[in-house]
Each structure stands twice: as structure tokens, then as C-alpha cells.
Amino acid sequence: MNIPSNLTEFLYWVKERTEKLWSVDDENCPKGFYGAKWQGLSKEQIDQVEKKYNIRFIPEHKEFLKILHTIDKKEIFEYEDDGELITEERNFFYNWLADEKEVLEIIKSSYSWMKYDADEDSQVWLSSWGIKPASLEKRIEIFEEWFSHVPALLPLTGLRYIVSDENLKWKPVISLGSSDIIVMGWDLRTYLLNELSNYLDIHIDVFDEEDQMFYPELIDEVKNIFDENFKYDQTKDIPYLKERILYLSSGWSSFGLSYYPENAGIHPIVKTEMSEEEK
Q1: What is the SS3 string spanning 33-102?
Q2: How far apart are CA 136 and CA 132, in angstroms?
Q3: d(CA 128, CA 130)
Q4: What is the DSSP letter of 272?
Q5: How are beta strands 203-208 and 213-218 bridged, if at all?
Q6: Cα distance between residue 146 and residue 139, in whole Å
Q7: What per-residue confidence (pLDDT) applies to 196?
Q8: Measured between alpha carbons, how far is 114 from 149 in angstroms, rounded to an integer?
Q9: Distance between CA 29 and CA 144 in Å, rounded?
Q10: CA 70 to CA 68: how far, in whole Å?
């Protein structure tokens, strides 16, 4: 398939393949996506957004915003509630020009979700925070000092954030919700292959002898990209957040590590360290 390794070429590749899939109104096109087009931003618009929100996009993020950014359609979800069919529209990727309320809320949420870790009902307390104080006020004070050093987290879609620190060698995208934080890709290319895998025609149907049916499986080229991107590398770091991600066993694979032995049958999510608390 020869998926482009150059980010700019890759983003145009994503644009072409997704828009082609969405141009056909069939079972492969998500509800509400028929005819969808990406709505890139101009340099002037990107500058305006940075000024408006008092943020700085890293170069890779700017390239994403210039070529992709968001689509001109809403994703439609339908579900039943007490026998009534409910229809909701949701953003596919945040529109920095039109979704001010949602963008501000999701930016603040990265703080509030992690702040909950310092609450008395939470079970998370990092070693670097020292002995866990009995006082909630003191715990929040310690958390806020720690959070002030966390790199800026800028939203892409849903609970996905790009770590906005251009000094980092790797440019990871994380999924952050409640206590569980994982890396979705150590660069935008891998992240987008992960996030948009259902819209890029990068699967093949593989027959399962036991179930006697076909299942979609990623092509080898994409598997190799994922394997390479997520393998252990000591240079992979997210200042302050790395410790937080590794606090739960679910985050270890983000750094190419395994908390459980290879032959372990099940991998329950557990804390990887225990904090000392004030008596």
C-alpha cells in the first residue's frame, strides 16, 4: 500500500481515502458522514485560534489543522432510552472556529479529570507527590503544583489530546478520561491510523476456522507501523505525565512495556505502586 511516512503527504493521503469512502452512501459510510469533506484552516485562521485561546500549536499539529482539522458533517448516534429512539449529533474532530464551548470544556476537563485523582474518593496518588496527606486541601495543593508542570494538552476529538510541547522528541497523542490514560500514538501519523482505521481501507478479511466466519484484520504494513511506533525506546517521555500513565498497568504498553508476564492469561488493570498515607 505504501502509506506515506512524510507527515504532509500522509495527511493528504488520509484526506483522499476518507473522503472517497464517505462519497459513497453505503454500509461503510458512518451515519451522517455521506459527502463529508475535511475543512482545513489557513495560516491566518490558525494564528487567530492561537491568539483567541492563548495556546501554541506544535508544527505537526498546525500541519494537521491546515490539511484536515475537522469535517463539515456531524456524526449521528442513535440509541434507545425507555423505548424512545434518541438521535444525537457529535463532533468528529473539534472545529476550532465554531466549537468554542466544546473546546473550552474539553481543555478544562484534562485538569478536572486528573484533579479528581487527589480527591478523597480517588485511589490514585503518585510517588512523586510524597506521603498522601490526610487533608484534602493539602492534596489538591500538591496536585496543582504538579499539574502546573504538565505540558499543554490540546484536544483533537473526543478524549484525545496531543501533547503540545515542541521540545519533545516524540509528539504523542493520548487518550485521557478519568484515571486511565494511554498513548494512542507517538506521532500524529500513528495516531490517525489508529483513530481512523475504519475509514482508511487498511483491513483485510481473515477467516476464523473456529467461528467459521470472516473478521477484519489490519494489513501487515499498518501492524508494522504500530509495532515500530510502540516499541520500547528510552527517549519516549511525556514530562510529569509519564509517571501518571505508568501508575496503572493499562498504561505500560504505551511505552513498549509489559506489566504482566507473556504467558499471563488475563491482564486486569491494577495499580503498579502503593502510596504511603498520613495516619
Answers
A1: CCCCCECCCCHHHHHHHHHHHCCCCCHHHHHHHHHCCCECCCEEEEEEECCEEEEEEECCCCCCCCCHHH
A2: 10
A3: 5
A4: S
A5: antiparallel
A6: 11
A7: 97
A8: 13
A9: 44
A10: 6
- Report pLDDT for 145: 96
**CA atoms within a 13 Å half-sphere pointing along the CA-CB vector of 151:** 26
CB atoms within 10 A of CB 11: 23
Q: What per-residue confidence (pLDDT) applies to 264? A: 67
d(CA 134, CA 140): 11
- The confidence score (pLDDT) of residue 106 equals 93
What Rg, from alpha-carbon coordinates, does the chain have? 21
- Measured between alpha carbons, how far is 107 from 159 in angstroms, rounded to an integer? 10
Task: Note the pLDDT of residue 278.
Answer: 63
Give 10-residue mean pLDDT values along the chain (279 residues): 96 97 90 94 98 97 98 88 86 94 93 82 85 89 95 96 96 87 97 96 91 92 97 96 93 93 76 72
CA dist., res. 22 & res. 121, Å (int): 44
Q: What does the chain come to in residues?
A: 279
Rounded CA-CA distance 86/79 in Å is: 5
pLDDT at residue 190, as a whole number: 98
Nearest to 127 by CA among 242, 236, 237: 242
Q: How many CA atoms lie within 13 A of 44 on its CB side?
A: 0
Looking at the chain, list the stretches that DSSP marks H as alpha helix, in order from N- to C-terminal side: 7-22, 43-53, 59-67, 100-115, 136-147, 188-195, 220-230, 241-246
